[in-house]
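Bench log, entry 3. Co-assembly request; chain sequences pasted below exactly as received.
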Amino acid sequence: MKHDVVIVGGSAGGIQAAICTQKHHGTEDILVIRQEQKVVVPCGIPYIYGTLGAVDKNIIPDKMLGNAKVKVGEVTAINRGGKTVTLANGEEIGYRKLVLATGSNPVCPPIPGVDKKNVYLVKKDPDYLQQLSTAMDQAKHILIVGGGFIGVEFADECRKRGHQVTMVELLERCLQLVCSTDLCVRAEDVLRKSGVNVITGTSVKSISGNSQVESVELSDGRSIKCDMVILGIGVAPNTKLAQEAGLQIGPSRGIKVDEFQRTTDPDILAVGDCAEKYSFFNGEPVPVRLASVATREGKIAAANLYSARWRNVGTIGVFSTVVGDTAIAMAGLSDIQAAKMGFDIVVGEAEAASKHPGTMPDAKPMKVRLTFDRRSGRLLGGCACCTMTAGEVSNLIAAGIVNGMTIEQVALFPMGTHPWLTASPLAYQLTDAASNALHKVVHTP
Amino acid sequence: MKHDVVIVGGSAGGIQAAICTQKHHGTEDILVIRQEQKVVVPCGIPYIYGTLGAVDKNIIPDKMLGNAKVKVGEVTAINRGGKTVTLANGEEIGYRKLVLATGSNPVCPPIPGVDKKNVYLVKKDPDYLQQLSTAMDQAKHILIVGGGFIGVEFADECRKRGHQVTMVELLERCLQLVCSTDLCVRAEDVLRKSGVNVITGTSVKSISGNSQVESVELSDGRSIKCDMVILGIGVAPNTKLAQEAGLQIGPSRGIKVDEFQRTTDPDILAVGDCAEKYSFFNGEPVPVRLASVATREGKIAAANLYSARWRNVGTIGVFSTVVGDTAIAMAGLSDIQAAKMGFDIVVGEAEAASKHPGTMPDAKPMKVRLTFDRRSGRLLGGCACCTMTAGEVSNLIAAGIVNGMTIEQVALFPMGTHPWLTASPLAYQLTDAASNALHKVVHTP
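Structure output for the full assembly:
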């Protein structure tokens, strides 16, 4: 059996590639091969355990795939010469174009005791996530290793579910890899106030217990009693198939792709967590692995299947999360990342009520912080917190970045405002943050 | 007494000019002359009568003005030769640079009976608005003339306050001047379901009653009993001072300004509702009068007081409102406006749950509709509804417009997503609307 387009992997990148292949080329002979009967919403996984309450409430419906067909199975080899893939059951499936969307696997740290019962990774596998759910029903004290987004969200949801929760982060702050310090501090404060035991600047040395976890020993000598451990320390691109097929791998361990998502084989494209990403700012590899990035790459790959149409201008990185009722969102470079790239940065901040006048019901402080390149004036990054519009405000920041908007252009951005929906036009945070940055670089006459 | 900068008018444009004069020039010798003791938040006026409950809760604090001084009084003449303004009390005040921010006045339609007691305009005057509030306490049935933003918001707020409400709009649809038909229909539906009697395609012929209004007669012959009428049919630029001083007036009746907000006198600038606006799309005059536009012009004028620094690239027009719990927001050209300007348009729409998965609490349908120029591919306008992020999403659309983003660029926009904050990355409305528009113009190979 041969198909026009075969997509290996059924999560965000693979689904988007399937959708857009139909849109761009009218091709209907698309086969998606995936290992799972059902596909979980990747960003929704932490919410299974609190807000949603069930794995079944966090499933991407197959109808999104349109006319693409689905085969559940494991691809074990790519035969580039014959343009086929081999499945675990021995089946051979031919392709004209192959899209690899094999995703990533959670990293399992080499900690003694990591193989004990009730130590879980965060896998995008509904059956595994259901086991985790069942086990969690019996757990009292859950220890989460890793204070990135996944760790923070798990901590918050497990807390909502009524568990005693400890979160251990190796770095000085949770969310430190992508957030500026003030946002990290804010997230930690919210978690602590809600009852989560947040431990930072500390590593996990070992996991103890008989067959089942009973305690976790930390680098500072402490031992924390717990009956479940969730490991959320990051993911590694799943490139086994690609490597075995002789495709090149990039410096941040993703499948090497060009700006059209093409691998080193012209008939094979790669998208999402398994594919190498390059920074919008300097073209260097960046280890950003997000469903939103995967879907964008799926769109690009679909457009470019038969000829180069859409160029990937690089990965900006737009992240957001909600801790308690505090939304935290950021786009582009943090100050530390910008400094590492050699930018001389200038920062502007503005905070104002999220509605106007500030006497409107539920008006809360909302802050925007922007980072610009002093030399060119261009927007490099920014963050927004803490109201629920922060996600779209970070997208607005991303729009400024991708369009190369300068400090002046952002300060003069023609925003609309409304009492229920935004800050006052006299105190709109995005434009005011730029204006405040501007007056650090512009001297009075 | 002579000041470096004198600003006539103390609402949004004047305040922003005062703030930014200090930021740009370090000038502290700024005098704001205004007629009101206190300044109301202009967009908050309808909310005084329902959500906020009091005029005092809708005041812009004078501390926003920083070190600028305030004089309450009426400027009756500008003496351009001597560079002074004359106040009603005879006082003469000198200026080096003068900024006119004299705003607009509500249009009073020439309807018989319009002078009766309990017929009110929507004036930005706290004392007048307080009188309206006191009178409203006694009113049972309020009839609102005009179904633009101000009319719709007054209708919704008066309804919340427990009044019987009728809204009469001359055009076929409420909000028709700026909204696409589907949004107009949605707003009308929400109002009707909440109990407002919405009458469109009908004009008011007369207002009857003894001293006080008792009924309103419509062009279709109907007579509506009511004991209060609120006239919200629009505003006219307040250009009396400027005209009497011999400054040129533009075709849409605002004070003529160049792209640096300078009037025909190089020492006088004008901003906000009193100043002429020019379309971002074709440079033609446009009658857009919004506080957000006024503040942007205040920023530009302040920068340009002593030399041309910031160019006004034109007015895009970003509007939003909330009716019941339905937010409606739009940016740029409506289809009708675009067609009038001669654009051959292509439209794309996308609707998806506002959170993801759609099983997240309070997830609601959220729709984005985008209008592009078929020839250049550029984004011309768009709208978002109906969740509370619509305001910021319309700002995202505005960012696309002001940066000249094309269909492809919007389809590939590197948005971030989060379960609590946005749609799924597989169904993000902005990018999907562009993608759907794209496939109307791109043919399959």
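The domain at 2-105+236-303 of chain A is CATH 3.50.50.60 (FAD/NAD(P)-binding domain). The first strand of chain A starts at residue 2 and ends at 8.
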